[in-house]
Each structure stands twice: as C-alpha cells, then as structure tokens.
Amino acid sequence: MPGNPLTRLRVVLTVFFALDGFVFAGWVVRIPDIKEQTDATAGTLGLALLGVSAGAVITMMLTGRLCRRYGNHQVTVVCAALLSLSVALPPLTHSPLTLGIVLLLFGAAYGGINVAFNSAAVDLVTTLRRPIMPSFHAAFSLGGMVGAGLGGIVAAHLSPTRHLLGITVIGLAVTAVAGRQLLRIEPPVPRERTEPRKGPRRRLDGRTRGLVIVFGLIALCTAYGEGAMADWGALHLKEDLDASAGVAAAGYSCFALTMTIGRLTGTTLLERLGRTRTVIVGGSTAAAGMLLGSLAPALWAALLGFGVAGLGLANLFPVAVERAGTLAGPTGVAIASTLGYGGMLLGPPAIGFMADWFSLPAALTSVAVLAAVAAAIGFGTRRAEADATPQHGSA
C-alpha cells in the first residue's frame, strides 16, 4: 500500500467502488433464474425489482446524516458488509413478495454505500484539487463488468444460491481487508468545505440548496439514460432491428464499455475542459448518440449510437455528485444521489409507458431529450456555479 495517506485513501476507495459494481452485477445476472424460482410474472418481477431502487432512495438521505455523525469511512465499511451479506438473500426467497422485501434491504445497503464512499471521494477530490472523481466511477463500471462476466461463466455450473453466497464471501473478505485500511486513514478535511465533516447539520442557504438540486437534476438525467439502456436497449435491437439475442446483448455492452472508457479518461478531460464544458459537451454528445441509436434503421448505426451515448453520459453523474458534495458535503451527495437514483427508478417504467403509447424507438428518444436538458442546465448555471464554488485547478 502506498505510503502517502491521500494516495492510500484513493486506492482503498477505488477498491470499494469496484466492489460495489462487482456485487451489484453479480445479482443482476441471476435475475432470470430467480424470476423462475419465485414463479414471478414480468409484472410482479418488475414490482419486486423496484425494491432495490426504493430501498436505495429511501436510505440515501438518512445516510447523509449518519456520515455527518460517524464519518464517511465508518459508514462505508458498515454498508459494504451489509451489501455483501444481503446479496445472498434473493435466491433464498420463493415468492415475488419476499423477493421484494429482501431487495429493499439490498437496495438500502446499496444506496448507503453510494452516499458514503461518494462523500469520502468528494473530500479527497477537493483536498487533492484534482478532478479525479470519474476514476472512482470507472472502478465501479469495471467491477460491474468483472461481476457480470464472472456471473456469465459460472451461471451454467452454479445455482444462484451458491453463486451469490460466493459473492458474499468475496465481498466480506474484501471489506475486511480494505475496511481495515480505510478506518486507519484520517479523513481529509477540505478547506473549501461549507459544512463540517461531522457534527450537527448546518442549514444550507437557498442559493446553495438550489445549485445542489440543479446538480441532482443533471444526475437524474444521466441515471435515467443508464436505466433505460440497461432495461430496453437490447429489446430495441432485437424487436425493431431483428438482431440476434447475442448481438442485442452486445448493444448494452457497447454502451457500458464506452462509458467505462469515458470515465477512465475523465480526469484528463476535466483538466482540459473544466466541469461545466464537460457537462455541456457530454450531454450534447449523449443526445446525438441516443438519437442515432434509437432511430437508425441499420443495426450497425444503432450500435454506434449506443456507444457514442455511453461516452457522452460517462462523466455527467460523477461531476454532478462531486459538485454537490463540494457545496454541501454528505448532504449534497445525498440530495444529488437521491435525485439521480430517482431517475434510474423513473426511466425504465417511463420508457415502457411511452413504448405502449408510441413505439420503443420513439420512447428511447426521451434519453436524448434528457441528455440535452443536462447540457442545457450545465450551460445555464455556469455563472452561478462559478460564483458559489471555490475555483481551483480547471474547475
């Protein structure tokens, strides 16, 4: 482990981001098997799956308070252990109702760790005065790709119970090792922090709260697109463009891969363009990509569009959460994350309703619309953000 405490903290937080993506992806790839095990219909499974998002959204604001009282590092470790334990519960259920109940617990742990380690990452970003937030979210994406790939390999050989129990063991082992390191590191206290890291909550003034909500809306627009692509992208390719099941699955892989690449290069991009221009360029790029992906008559063009959309959306969520956290600490992270995951909760059913009313390609253009809205919000609030936040680096 590197000797510099801030470098050690960056490494350990990266491990927790990757673990979060790994555990979540392990659960996602076993959803078809658990659907069959619980005798759920598409409708009842959809309701049960809402438990993840509902648990996350409900917990996020509470987690902000816990972070202020006990510290980001302590809450991160506890939530990582709960996430690792709760992922073993879904294959033990035998009805959609019980599945939904255990997914509330899983979602609560998932939401909690997201607020806690994003808050810790914001403190580190502000202390280092470098826009490294995308690198943490790239670790989440890479962990998800590893978790999904491993799940695909073992699905034919292990039952969901054994597979997810194995993930629990891995998760607890990683938490024990990385958590021990994290708890030994004194959390940095950025000079620019507008509220204390611990202690009673300081009421935000109206302008600051308004900016935090604006960043939350950018996160919402981004998460809406991610949720829509995860649930509807493959179906669009298969039903509207006659793609095979394998090629249809590759559509989301293109999206996820370019999003990971975008996040891995996000720090360099932010240092060159700054946060505001990154949001404007990213939102505009994602809007163009999703218009191509949803309306193109050729399969190759749709795949290209999905890839471009992933590249555009890659850094919007990390930037939004970081700016909200810089303004208001864990409170800002909690507000932006709650709005963001609200978008992920809203996206898939909204796409479904619009697909029934119009068509799936037309419904998917709503992702492009919201990406354009994110770009417009970034452009419209550029002066207010510059006045309200400390200027450092290329921010």
Describe the structure.
- This protein is mainly alpha-helical and 395 residues long.
- The protein has 2 domains: 5-184, Growth Hormone, Chain: A (Up-down Bundle), CATH 1.20.1250.20; 206-388, MFS general substrate transporter like domains (Growth Hormone, Chain: A), CATH 1.20.1250.
- Helix content is 82%, strand content 0%.
- It has helices at residues 5-28, 31-37, 42-70, 72-86, 96-128, 133-154, 160-184, 206-240, 245-264, 266-273, 275-295, 299-313, 316-357, 360-380, 382-388.
- The longest helix is centred in the C-terminal third of the chain and has 42 residues, at 316-357.
- The chain is globular and about 55 Å long.
Structural topology:
Blueprint: H1 5-28, H2 31-37, H3 42-70, H4 72-86, H5 96-128, H6 133-154, H7 160-184, H8 206-240, H9 245-264, H10 266-273, H11 275-295, H12 299-313, H13 316-357, H14 360-380, H15 382-388
- Tell me the count of domains: 2
* Corresponding CATH architecture of the largest domain: Up-down Bundle
What gap, in angstroms, lies between the N and C termini? 29 Å
User: What's the count of strands?
Assistant: 0
Q: Any idea what the shape is?
A: globular
The string of secondary-structure elements, in order, is HHHHHHHHHHHHHHH
The biggest beta sheet reads:
none
The CATH class of the largest domain is identified as Mainly Alpha
- The number of helical segments is 15
Structural class: mainly alpha
Key descriptive features of the protein:
2 domains; globular; single chain; Growth Hormone, Chain: A; 395 residues; disordered C terminus; 15 helices; mainly alpha
